[in-house]
Amino acid sequence: MKKEIILYIALWALFGTARMTLHFMTKGRLTAATKDLSLLHITFPYMMSAVAAAVEFDMRTIIPSLPFVIIGLLFFIGGSVIQFSGVVTLRNYFSNAVELKQEHTVISSGIYSLIRHPIYLGILLQSVASPFLLNVRIAVLFIIWATIGIFLRIRNEERFLCEHLDGYADYRKRTSALVPGIF
User: Fold this and answer.
1) How far apart are the first and last CA of the chain?
2) Which of 30, 26, 18, 19 is nearest to 88 (CA)?
3) Is residue 182 situated within a structural domain?
């Protein structure tokens, strides 16, 4: 097995372990029923982009150049930091389900003072890392699928939160969904 694949798998394994630890620390649930399947359209292509990238890389002989690897690492690490920041800021309010917890309030501190969905932004950034890290193209198809899933999920979440969480509609007017000042 190529050393690049081993490092790539180790990077994803480290992230996965850290993410699971955060779930337990914030009393989050690993799985939760939702009324929509949008989470499936994020999680499956997100993970498949990593797997497909590794498989394609293993079949190729072209090694990515150092600048692309550095760009990929910046996307992956940046996405991880943004995602963890979102989960840590939410604490016990974090959930995989579109739901309200007991005594739920709008969280507008930390990274949530800038954007409403940092966890989804982190997922997108991490997904974009694979083509750069391994010089592969197949992962792009899964990234597009995950991006569509994220936009559907944001639409569903925001509709639910505007209807059921006092102050969310005002918070939505003051902040961007994913990129400050743009979207």
Assistant:
1) 41
2) 26
3) no
Share of the chain above pLDDT 70, in %: 74
Tokens of 176: 């961007």
Please classify residue 39 by burial: count the beta carbons closer than 10 Å to its beta carbon, then call 0-12 exposed, 13-18 middle and 19+ buried.
buried
Instruction: Write the CA distances from 63 to 132, 171, 181, integer angstroms.
Output: 11, 46, 37
* Residue 121 forms part of a structural domain: yes
Say what the pTM is: 0.76
What distance in Å separates the CA atoms of residue 2 and residue 157, rounded to the nearest whole number? 41
Contact call for residues 54 and 129 (beta carbons, < 8 A): no
Average pLDDT over residues 36-44: 60
Amino acid, single-letter form, for residue 109: S
